[in-house]
Amino acid sequence: MDKLREKAAALLADGTVTMVLGYEEGTNKPRPVFCHTAEQASKLVYSSQCINNLAVYLTKKDIMGAGKVAVIATIPTLRSILQLSVENQLNEDNLVVITVTDKDEVKQFANFAEIEAYIADFELKLEGKEQEIINKLEGMSREERFKFWMEEMSHCFKCYACRAACPLCYCTKCIVEENRPQWINPWASPLANMEWQINRAMHMAGRCTGCGACGDACPVGIPIHLLTRKMIEDLAPEFGFTPGQPSKNGNALSTWKADDKENFIR
Amino acid sequence: METKYISKNGLNEWFSQIVKSGKRVYAPVEERGKVEFKKVQALSEVAEEYIQTTQSIKSAVFPRAEVLFSYEKENGKVKVEDFNPDAVKETVLWKVHPCDAAGFKPLTAIFNWDYTDKLYNAHLEKTTLVTFSCAKADKSCFCTSVNGGPGNTTGSDVLLTMLPDGGAIVEILTPKGEALVQLAASAFENDKGEDKSKYLADVPQAFDIEEVRARLATAFDSSVWKEQSERCLGCGACAFVCPTCACFDIQEDAHGSKGKRIRCWDSCGFSLFTLHTSGHNPRAVQSQRWRQRILHKFSYMPDRLSVFGCTGCGRCSRACPVDMNILEHITSIAKK
Amino acid sequence: MSKIGVFICHCGENISATVDCEKVAQEIRKVEGVEYAIDYKYMCSDPGQTLIKDAIKEHHLDGVVVGSCSPRMHEPTFRKACAEAGLNPFLCEMANLREHCSWVHEKGEATTEKAFDLVKMLVEKVKRNKPLDSIKVPITKKALVIGGGIAGIQASLDIANTGHQVILIEKDPSIGGHMSQLSETFPTLDCSQCILTPRMVEVAQHPNITLYTYAELESLEGFIGNFTAKIRLKAKSVDHKKCTGCGACFQKCPQKRIPSEFNAGLGTRTAIYVPFPQAVPNKPVIDREHCNYYKRGKCKICEATCPTGAIEWDKEDEILTEQVGAIVVTTGFNVKGTDFFPEYGYGQYKDVITGLQFERLASASGPTLGEIRRPSDGTIPKKIVFIACAGSRDEAKGIPYCSKICCMYTAKHAMLYQHKVHDGESTVFYMDIRAGGKNYEEFVRRAIEEDHVNYVRGRVARVYEKNGKLIVKGVDTLLSGEQVEIEADMVVLATAGVSNCGAEQLAQKMHISYDPYHFFAEAHPKLKPVETNTAGIFLAGACQAPKDIPETVGMASGAAVKVAGLFSNNELVREPLIAVVNRSAPPVFSTCVSCFMCQTACPYNAIEREEIKGRDGKVIKTVAKVNPGLCQGCGTCVAFCRSKSIDIQGYSNEQMFAEVMSLLNH
Amino acid sequence: MNNNNSEFEPKIVAFVCNWCTYAGADLTGTSRLKYATNVKIVRFPCTGRIDFMLLLKAFAQGADGVIVSGCHPNDCHYTSGNFHARRRWITFRGLLDFMGIDVSRIQYSWVSAAEGAKWADVVNTTVANIRELGPYTEYQKVADYLDKEEYNG
To answer: Using the beta-carbon criterion (under 8 Å), do B59 and D152 form an inter-chain contact?
Structure first.
């Protein structure tokens, strides 16, 4: 932890960066913090408890400003950073990416290519409780699954915390704000909520890196992250990509193979 | 204004009488690891062990989405069907916390400020609040800092303070409350003279709200807003769980020649909330939206409506994905 | 508030027979935004169109829906009519009440209701149509003709003679195609080569024609007026600039037993060869598959004999890139071989031959110098049997269609046989005789009456060999109904005409459609016979369906005129139904978030990057931009764009959304 | 909603591409082949253009079934629009099924400009299937956001 604080302090002190994004102690668990001075770096903490995906801030112009910033990145954050770079959203020269290895070493990446190499060793796996719910759902009849999701969706009040917490939801104008035509009814209703989630999932197809920030953010505890997470599990083998590893040449929906399965097409 | 005692059995009797009377009863119910207000039939469904429901009960009087009126155009003529107050059902809100009940005061103030809102008042009129004093609190609670308290009666029709024997001290606060009690008058006994304060949760006061208000009067251009809001993601979670947030949007649900006009929740935390058609946004960045949220609750509302827009329920702090702890933030403002 | 005019067409009886057109018109008047509605017998007729024009002026309509036939039929007609009345043509839409309603449903309530829904759907769409201006794209006034048969030759000459450049490519070493293989042609019996070869030479010498033989289309990109064609020039291994065509090389070539394609396998050729004496260009290529040098690494006799040192052993295929504005596809057809017919001996009997092989026997330039002789022993057949419809019109063989030319050439073959073998006896087994065409019927009658060809109506069940003879077993279904058995010396099968090999792949390269038999599909069976569904690509000849020479030549000239018509303008006016990236008020400028995922999705590389600059010239943001010349309006990017920043004119999100909603709101 | 399947007339929307299936459906007409009136065709330039939201909207608006049809692989007028569409459908289908939405109510097909008969068959079999499945009330029910007691907390 000290090594991390020193590193951050150094970067700020020598003016390499204008700001360091990291974690500080929060009410119940660590939360995002923005250090602008070397002194503030002393607030930094790092542990497995750090679950917020800091990549979400990297596309917020008013927070980032023009200067160079450093971000302390967990594995999920690293994945998001790569996906964002693939999507033309990051300026490699304006970003210092730091992580803390399992051996508790502070590692600074020279470039995105290095990040790619680094995360290649970390396989994106379904967590036990995720797998549990997925198994439960797959065990259900279609009608039961529909009931399950409808019940869940009935709790959604459209606060869009899922969108706000997702590093890849960086559109200036989200489809739910689109009103010509009004694709999705703006008020909270089970159907409108479901339509929103289906859109979110479809827009994430081939992009989602499975960090689970959307699910963590949901104040009413809907396991929405499973929608995209399950999609990764299904599509990765189907379309031949590695879960959580962004591809530079297009994603699941912007590319195709002549032999994509079509047993459902007459 | 009368105080009575009700025994455990009496409580059961009263509750079943309320249900029998045909009134809808909403009470906290534990489901999917969350406690939320839900329509109930029996006292046994009501949750016991919890600090706070995730969402406030404001939706009982200010639903997430509500039809203002519906219309249909037929060969040139337009038929409008207005909102019908008589269609609103009698409702009892059971086991509301004092901080939630207190929320009804600012809500009522907002919906009757420059315009008397037909829908809100219709709901309110038919709603009776049976509030339970808080015996437990957590570090997000701060009712005592905002003119409230675990045994506060503001906004309630009846206030119950549970006693170790399973019975409760019953404070009947309004005619509505009295009427509800009359549904099972025999279930109530005379007051045993117990001091309810013994049974209330300990919620230390964190700041002096008037001091905060005074500081805020000059804080519009303070750097504090940027500092506090840097990590804010700009979602609407805080506003939607809040018992006093009343911002809404008005939307059209039009299909061919018929349609409905709908009022639905909105939040000043959304960047779109103040976006002009011209493309100009008077609250262009999140820090400005955060400032609006705080000033509105702790400065504008007391100025205009002589009531604070915060009851210290701490829901926003618990709901926030990035731990924007309002207690912490307000305290720091007070200390500045 | 829209003012839509709705015009319901009866199409004579075609629509009104099952749809209550009057009711549809009445009901639609009640729909929000419909200002005027009327039904009429023939909307596409002059008075019909006048009706529309007058209504536009009189009622100041800002949108028109015509409920009639398929828009694929008359959309241009009605859009033109609207334009003439001063309404932007793209404010006119058509509801398909004929093909999609009246013709496919029985008369009744439901059918009329559906008709109403279809019209209502388009009303909701047209409310959201925007006036659009056509896009103008420059035209490269150079044509590519693919296939050097008579169709390609005719098309090339006709285009070249209008003063435009033509590139003609032919996959074989010489142009000429099937026609050059024919002996005489029906119904005039004039010598095929005599009329063809002058045309071939003309092609070679024409200043406006660039001829590439031994060449194939590698790939095709772009769109009408602006195609980029990659052409593979297969290695000839002979430098035609140096080669004088003296022929020394192929006289000396040791590989002499290669079956000659030109002689349909009846004759042989060498490895370095000119396919036939009148070939154009009359210069050899080396068939590497059979050449000793390429097979075993030694020989090179041709090189030794070549006086000009034209042999190029290491020559490789070249890829040539050409910009062309239009393409005429004239790749012709093929005929089934005898091996296709188990009942006729699977091609194992030497003296059972195809009609094409008979052409070579009868041809003066053929392997027998025009004498009809049996491939097996070279004797002159005294009894010959011609079997028409060999494979054609036979569901069981997967060829249900009529090959069209067999009846005529079979009659011709029998005639030629009778003329050459005076004591010979010829029998034709036929199913029907189809001799539609100028002097065709007379021609067949001549065969029967003057040349005494014996016509037997019936199918031949079996042909088998029995001590040197071919036993032909059939039934005379016309007269006796009895078994007929003929001991023939030779049997000629009028085998089915089929699509040329590789037709499917070629169609896919060019993105034109084809039918189940891989013949290329014309844009409209009657009214657009030489066009394809892909603008700028035209068809001529048997690649579209089997046809005879006159028809092929006519079609080729037709295609040529289409090309000339296209080239008669400097700019091509295209429908503006293309994608556009939105623009919005500052500080956003466009909701495009520059992820550029659309670039990977676009089939035409039509999406570019555009910098939005502030007054100070500083780049504010870089967003996607659609190149209107390249965009073909498929809309894949539109459905793909998450922020809905790209929309497509004419099929916009608002329009499609409104259509779907309207269908279900009652 | 009519729950008696024998009298039940399914509402079906067909999303088709202009070059193959729309032309194929034209051929069905020209060939005077008959099919059920339940299906109404919406014309798109290409299957690649078809937004998955439109399918959801159709169901929300009361459609009981949906047909999506375009050019056979390799036949796309725009080279690869149908390939992109196919990817989208595979992804969409998996998601819908995971959410318990009845994917058997969506019939995907390739119908070329030459397959008039196939179009008639696709329509008729789809109508029969949907008739069998009955009205999609399960989905349309949740479209009613007014049901406060359940949904408004």
So the answer is: yes
